[in-house]
From TrEMBL:
This is Alpha-hydroxy-acid oxidizing protein. GO terms for molecular function: FMN binding; L-lactate dehydrogenase (NAD+) activity. InterPro entries: Aldolase_TIM, Alpha-hydoxy_acid_DH_FMN, FMN-dep_DH, FMN_HAD, FMN_hydac_DH_AS. The keyword Cytoplasm does not apply. It comes from the Bacteria.
């Protein structure tokens, strides 16, 4: 279904997705670990920043464009990796890749997603695809996965480093819901044996150095929060750091990634990209991250909601709305380009209450039917 003609706000995407998703799947997509303090903290961090705009700066012409690893982006955003996209739309990663290509943004393809990486790459040869890896084997296995990414024409490789164990997601536990049982992991020979392994739990900086030695593709480490780990990532050959607390789904009471942008930027310098995710729902959210020093913001839960609302057309609509919102924010902040966003445009404030469906869906469970 083409949603572009009848959806004008991302609030409507959330409302439509909630009506269409089964309660257990809604909880899987929107929930977090344990008390969900980390999940709610992501949104609180964004809402705790207010703008201090400039005026009379001639913003008649504006651009939301930027670049990542030398590749142009129409919007400083990307589709974050989600392993169970087919729970929200039967096309799964293929729908996200098609929408990202149409919108001119990168799409992270999780090794847990469907269809297989090679199928997505064949169907969308012009999409900027980045393979996200969970380690589920030894170094020979990792070498094979890197070879697949190179053969598929991926623009970069992303190693997730914040998942030594699986977070205790109490909504899923209460619902007796397992995404591993619900979705076929087609990128693995043993399609059901994809739970966290010893290799993932035992990852160290030596493994990062080994991965770096396998390929000339840009290497991204996802799940960085501590500035010392950002520094070590750069020291071990990472081309970018991806700040994330896994959407509040791993360690509860974890700091918001947004609050670590400035420290990470100071740790790795001005040249390497700093990616970030965690609660991004609007163009103004993206503007705040960029003003703090981020290169681009990742869309996880919002991507899943857009898929549920309208498949690939839903994701295209969502990205189009974010671009319009960001362009509008630039004008009202007195900026012509995203490069002009800086911390001087921000002030810390007390977050207020919002009646927005988009801002309040976090922390809400789907009523059981």
């Amino acid at each position: 279904m083409d949603t572009s003609a009848d959806i004008f706000t991302n609030d409507e995407i959330v409302t439509r997705a909630r009506a269409r998703l089964a309660p257990a799947v809604w909880d899987y997509l929107t929930g977090g670990a344990e008390s969900e303090r980390a999940l709610c903290g992501n949104r609180l961090a964004l809402d705790s920043l207010a703008f201090l705009p400039r005026v009379l700066r001639d913003v008649a012409e504006r651009s939301t464009a930027t670049s990542l690893f030398g590749r142009s982006m129409a919007l400083p955003a990307f589709l974050a990796p989600i392993g169970s996209l087919s729970l929200f739309d039967k096309e799964g990663a293929l729908a996200s890749a098609a929408a990202a290509r149409a919108a001119g943004v990168p799409c992270f393809i999780s090794i847990m997603s469907q269809p297989a990486l090679e199928e997505v790459a064949r169907a969308e040869p012009d999409a900027v695809l980045i393979l996200q890896i969970y380690v589920r084997g030894d170094r020979d296995w990792l070498r094979q996965v890197v070879g697949r990414a190179e053969a598929a024409g991926c623009a970069a490789i992303c190693l997730t480093v914040d998942s030594a164990v699986y977070g205790r997601r109490e909504r899923d536990l209460r619902n007796r819901f397992s995404s591993a049982a619900a979705v076929d992991r087609v990128n693995f020979d043993d399609r059901k044996s994809v739970q966290i392994t010893t290799e993932q739990a035992a990852l160290s900086w030596d493994d990062v150095a080994f991965l770096r030695s396998l390929t000339r593709l840009p290497l991204i480490l996802k799940g960085i929060l501590h500035p010392e780990d950002a520094r070590l990532a750069a020291e071990h050959g990472a081309d970018a750091v991806y700040l994330s607390n896994h959407g509040g789904r791993q360690l509860d009471h974890c700091v918001p990634a947004l609050d670590q942008i400035e420290a990470a930027r100071a740790a790795i310098g001005a040249d390497k990209p700093v990616l970030v995710d965690g609660g991004f729902l609007r163009g103004t959210d993206i503007a705040k991250a960029l003003a703090l020093g981020a290169t681009a913001a990742g869309l996880g839960k919002l991507q899943g909601l857009a898929l549920a609302a309208g498949g690939r057309a839903g994701v295209e609509t969502m990205l189009s709305l974010l671009k319009a919102e960001l362009s509008n924010a630039l004008a009202l902040l007195g900026c012509r380009t995203v490069a002009q966003l800086d911390a001087a445009l921000l002030r810390r404030t007390q977050p207020g209450l919002s009646s927005s469906v988009l801002s309040t869906f976090i922390g809400q469970r789907q009523p059981q039917t």
